[in-house]
Every structure is written in C-alpha cells, then in structure tokens.
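Entry:
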Amino acid sequence: MNAMFKTGLITFTASLLFSFVVSVTIFFSFPLDSWSLLWEQRMFDLPFIYFLLIVIVLGGVTAGLLAGSYIKSKLTVIRTEVEAVSKGKKRAGLNGEQLQEMKDLERSLTALEQKIMEQTKAAQRLVTEHAKEREKSLQEVVAEERTRLARELHDSVSQQLFAASMMMATINETSPPEDDTMKKQLTMIGRMIEQSQLEMRALLLHLRPIALKNKTLEEGVKELLSELKEKVPLQIQVKAEPLELEKGVEDHLFRILQEAVSNILRHSKAEKMTVLCVSRDEYVILRITDNGIGFSVDDAIERSSYGLTNMKERAEAIGGAFKIVSVEGEGTYYEVKVPFSKGGESE
C-alpha cells in the first residue's frame, strides 16, 4: 500500500467519523419534528441524507488524495536525497523546505555526508600509510631478485623468442614450403611464437618494480606505456594529466593500470589500446580500453578471476568504484573513479 492511498484512506475514514459525530450531535441538540424530512427534503434531486453522505465521501476522498499527494512528493524528495548520499553524488539539498521535519532531515543528511567524507579520507590516509610502510619494509634482496629475473628473462628467453620469430618470418618469405599443410603448420608456429612473446612481455611487466617510488602517477603511466610502444605490436594512445594525489592513491591506480595492461597483452589479441588518466568533476578517472576479442565478465567473476578481483579490491581500498564492460568481438572497457579534490586531499 503506497503512501498516497494509505493517507487518503485514513483521511477519508477520519472525516467520515467526524461528520457522523457532528451530525449526531446536531440532530440530538436540535431534533427534527419529523425524521422523514431527511428523506423528503431534496438537494439537486437527491434526498438530503444522500446528499450529505455524498458530500462527506467526496470531501474525505479529496482531502485524502491531496494529503497523500503532498506526502508522496516529500517522500520522493527524501528518497532522491538519500540515494544521492548513498551513491556519493552531490545533493540538491533541502534548504528551501519550510517544514521543521525537513530541516531536521537536511541537517542529518549533511552530517551523514560529512561522516562518509571523513571515513573516505581516513581510509585513503590509511592506505597511504600502509603504502609507505610497505615501501620502507620491502627487503632490498627481493627487489634485486625481481630485477635479476626480469633481466635474465629479457636477455635469454625473450631474445630467443624474438630470434625464432625473425627466423620463422624469413622462412615464410624466402623459401615457403609448397605443401599447404606445412604452410599452415608454419603459420601456426609463427602465431604461437608471437603469443609467447606477448606472454613474456606481460610476465616482465609483472616482474618490474611495481611501486612508483619518486615518480608521479602521470610520469609512471607515460613511462610504462612508452616502453610498451617500443616492444609490442600494439597501437597505444595515452592521455595523462598531472594530478596532486596522495601516495597510496597513486600507487593503487598504477597497479590497477599494470594489471589491466597485462590482461590486454595476454588475452585480448587487441590491435589498439587507449589509456586515460584525468581529473573531471571532482573525480580521478583511470580508463583503459582495447579493441580485442573481449570476454564474458560474468564467467570471469564466477571463476573468481584474480586480476579482476585484485583491481576491484584496490579501487575500493581508496574509496573508488571499479567498472568493467566487455563485449565479445568488440573489446573491453576498464574504469576506476576515485573522489578527489585539488591539493592532494581526497573526498
């Protein structure tokens, strides 16, 4: 039962009871000589008693509908404001309301907004502190071992895969076999080598130092993608603006970017990738798109994909929202939005 109908019913019932009490009081205080006059006296061709009942019913229904409509409009305003608070959007406010209850609600919503903002700031500060502690406590030997493994893989396996790819291309161009079956097999081997190279580059991307250290997010994004342009057959477009963010927020956004790029290199078979890292409407937006083969997001979630789960958890850890849309055969869209205000303080 909605508010409008319920209010109308209550108002109608109350008006009916009130009219009954008033009518009984009047009739007993001023008794009629003949009660038949209630039936004989006519108003608009209706007995007076019927006319009185119709007026009562119509008055009650009208009052109920008006009251219900008024209450429904107020509830709609309240629902809109509460939804805006729950989604982190900017509210229109209830400052123009005259009802004391609405003014009290406005104060409560403002206090709730302030509390949510403070909790987000506290969470981001905590992430920043953890990021700094993690960097301080990171053992030097671990960093050196990661660097050594990346260097050895690049100098040995990666170079051998490149040489095998060049040799396969030379064979196919200079002396291709006449047997069609052999041609198909050589072509398949060439594709396998190319895919292995992409897998190796994705692995090297994971092995490289993942912290920004003394670099800003803008510098880290541009440097990472600049290196990829030289190593992978992928068109890469990047737009990164200088942003004054806290260290922990920058670190998490950079790691999300690395995870997304790794997924694209390993699985998407894309020809083009676009990266956007900007500040718009009090939000930091990190968006990565590709034109690859896409995949079923629901299936990936059911399989508890480590990469997607990791990106989502990192986004939520800094008070942001993670969104992914993928259409099979058309590509994938990753987006992270984090509340942000100038000066390095997040909302």
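Residues 214 and 251 are 11 Å apart (CA to CA).
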